[in-house]
Design a protein that fits this description.
By secondary structure, the protein is an alpha/beta fold. It is built from ten helices and twelve strands. The protein has two domains: 53 residues; 271 residues, Spore Coat Polysaccharide Biosynthesis Protein SpsA, Chain A (Alpha-Beta Complex), CATH 3.90.550. Helix 5 links the parallel strand 3 and strand 4.
């Protein structure tokens, strides 16, 4: 909440409480009552300020925190999203994402579905995940880990992906070209597949294939989250006042996104939501053209704002820590993934 809005709330509370207090004191004609009424007003204003600020302050997470809360949705975020995304006009309609799916895993009974965005040729990354944090069969009784991949750059890559699918049956293969421009379609196919096939799921976690997930810590963390509420948790990091880049790898033209700043959104490597929230976002996507390539911006920014869903966000250094980006740009990621798992299991 900005300072101007806070001042308006405080002034309104002061006016209402002051009017009530002084009317009561005037009727009773007791000076002591007037003093007491003023003290009550001051205390009440302090409580309003503290409560208002705490509701809108990112959480500094610690292990002894019993519950976390979402920051109330702020309607001013809608002013950072172009009208073409917010409107429900027919020309802005989004696709049915299920036809993008060429091959898919079997149906699941899992409570938690983890979708992993992975490039088609990242064979070692996927194997490292299977051998590390996704290797514990006890954990996997209530978990479903699904790798999202598209069409590779060569027929040989697609052939190897086909063999991998037959061996592991944990790939969701799309008929789109595997590229940065199609990341949003890739992520949305995962959400659509989960809704149709994992009917008992309670949570959806979206991660990249360079992300390490501590499953034990994650499952403990789920108990702290709000019940029966829509939210998206930025489990790794929240991007606030994110710049819209006009040049470089993540360039977006002004015709595509007219504003210079995005609404708050979750950094791509890791974000979590209840299944009911994922269903709301999937519904909103049917009237929203997926022409923004960054899936984290599109899902946890644009669709979230369109659906008026709040965020759970943490201070810059205060995230829970069970979801860690290992960074694809650094060498030997598969080895680092397995090493991270060994460190965790030895604790």
């Amino acid at each position: 909440m900005d300072s101007l809005a806070l001042k308006k709330i405080v002034l309104m509370v002061v006016f209402l409480l002051s009017t009530t207090a002084f009317l009561s004191a005037w009727i009773s004609y007791k000076p002591d009552d007037v003093v007491a009424a003023v003290d009550e007003v001051v205390d009440a204003v302090d409580e309003v300020i503290d409560e208002t600020l705490s509701l809108n302050r990112p959480i500094n997470f610690s292990d002894d925190l019993n519950e976390v809360y979402s920051i109330p949705f702020r309607k001013k975020e809608r002013s950072l999203v172009p009208e073409k995304y917010l409107s429900n006009r027919e020309e802005n309609a989004g696709p049915n994402y299920l036809p993008y799916i060429e091959k898919q895993p079997e149906e699941c009974e899992a409570r938690i579905v983890i979708t992993v965005k992975s490039s088609a040729d990242h064979f070692e990354h996927r194997e490292a995940i299977r051998e590390s944090w996704a290797s514990n069969k006890h954990d996997l009784e209530n978990l479903k880990v699904v790798f999202l991949v598209g069409k590779g750059k060569t027929d040989e890559i697609d052939k190897q992906v086909g063999k991998e699918y037959l061996e592991h049956k944990d790939l969701l293969i799309g008929n789109y070209i595997d590229s940065y421009q199609n990341l949003t379609i890739k992520a949305m196919t995962g959400i659509a597949w989960r809704k149709k096939n994992c009917l008992r799921s309670e949570f959806v976690l979206a991660v990249d294939d360079d992300t390490f997930v501590d499953l034990d810590q994650m499952k403990n963390h789920l108990q702290r989250l709000p019940e029966s509420e829509d939210f998206i948790e930025c489990s790794e990091r929240t991007v606030t006042k994110g710049k819209v880049w006009r040049e470089g790898q993540w360039a977006v033209s002004a015709d595509q996104y007219e504003f210079d700043v995005y609404p708050n959104y979750c950094n791509g490597p890791c974000y979590l939501m209840p299944s009911q929230t994922a269903d709301v976002l999937l519904g909103a996507s049917q009237t929203t053209k997926p022409d923004h390539p960054a899936d984290d911006v599109f899902i946890s920014g644009i669709l979230r704002v369109k659906s008026e869903i709040p965020l759970i966000q943490y201070t810059r250094t205060g995230a829970p820590g069970w979801c860690r980006e290992l960074n694809n740009r650094k060498p030997r990621l598969p080895q680092r993934m397995v090493k991270e798992h060994r460190k965790t299991t030895q604790l």
